[in-house]
Amino acid sequence: MEQMLRIAMLAVAVVAAVGATFAAQGQHRPTLFAARPAANLGPLSLMPPHSGLPIESTGRVEEWQNRRLVAAEAEAAARAAAAQAAADAKARAAARASVLAASAPPAATSIPSYPPGTVQDIITKAFTPLGATAVAWGLRVAKCESGYNPRAYNGAGPYYGLFQFLMSTFKATPFGGQDIYDPVANAGAAAWKYSQGGAGSWGCR
Question: Counting Cβ atoms within 10 Å, is residue 121 exposed (0-12), middle (13-18) or buried (19+)?
């Protein structure tokens, strides 16, 4: 009995010694999960803009914006140039039309009268059925081509008579069987040619 009591007291002493040892170690053990102080980031209002974007990404965005601006300016300049070119072309066309209108002979409103038998009278009678404008054209072209000379001749063609016909052209008219130097036949052939839309065959207008 005495021996068992000694053993129990020894066990209690051992347990007490072990507990004291663990208590001492617990006082000197470092804290593994100590909270770290938060970084001082300063007030939010002082944070730089786009602080969340890398510098490289920000630069690319600015370059893209610049390219869009340059493209828009180039497109606007091209549209302005096209509009100016169209306006210039319209102004040139109007100027040409004005020059042509000024150089064109005035439209005839009446048929002139000449002494019977004269060349001008022959031309007037040939063109009168076609109207005053046709009469004015016939008188103007005959004066330019031959100077109202029924026997005018130009070896370059050769050209003959009052309206300076080529012989082949004259013979293709209803008056081709007559004398090409006859002013009545020559003027009649010219009036027929005019009525068929052939006014452009003459160099004189």
Answer: middle
Taking the C-alpha atoms of residue 42 and residue 78, their distance in angstroms, rounded to an integer, is: 51
pTM beyond 0.90: the answer is no
In this predicted structure, the answer to whether residue 158 has a pLDDT above a threshold of 90 is: yes
Q: Is the backbone of residue 41 left (phi > 0), alpha (psi -120 to 50) or beta? A: alpha
Residue for token digits 């005053």?
132
Which residue segment(s) compose the domain that 168 sits in? Answer: 119-197
Q: Which of 73, 104, 135 is the last residue of a domain?
A: 104
73: exposed, middle or buried (Cβ count in 10 Å: 0-12, 13-18, 19+): exposed
Residue-level pLDDT at 186: 98
Q: Is 54 within a domain?
A: no
Q: Answer yes or no: do 92 and 147 share one domain.
A: no
Q: How far, CA to CA in Å, does 205 sit from each of 5, 65, 75, 136?
A: 156, 64, 49, 10
